[in-house]
Design a protein that fits this description.
Layout: H1 5-12, H2 17-24, H3 28-35, H4 43-53, H5 57-60, H6 66-88, H7 90-102
Length: 103
């Protein structure tokens, strides 16, 4: 099976196809065809997905290689970092980063 950027991103974020479908007013089967590379994501939905997932539009619609996967992981890490920072505050993030550096 070819792995598209949408599939890979969704897996990392632990989202279901149904969650993506519900957010964008399509069926789960439509998301499946996007992920399988059988159908390209339309321009409007692609732009919205890109914004929601913080992933480059080109990466979402193509079969990804290891370099692409690295870029997707970096984008997802930024999302997760922002979520943690919003939820727990800057001080908590500083403590986490310090602990990570001390290793």
């Amino acid at each position: 099976m070819a792995i598209t950027g949408l599939y890979y991103t969704r897996q990392i974020l632990e989202m279901t196809q149904q969650e993506i479908a519900d957010k964008f007013g399509v069926t789960r089967q439509t998301v499946s065809t996007w992920e399988g590379g059988f159908r390209k994501i339309g321009k409007n939905k692609l732009s919205a997905l890109s914004n929601m997932l913080n992933i480059n539009e080109d990466l979402l619609n193509k079969v990804v290689d290891d370099v692409d996967k690295y870029h997707i992981i970096q984008s997802v890490l930024k999302i997760k970092k922002n979520e943690i920072q919003t939820k727990y505050g800057e001080k908590f993030m500083q403590l986490l980063e310090k602990q990570y550096q001390e290793g």
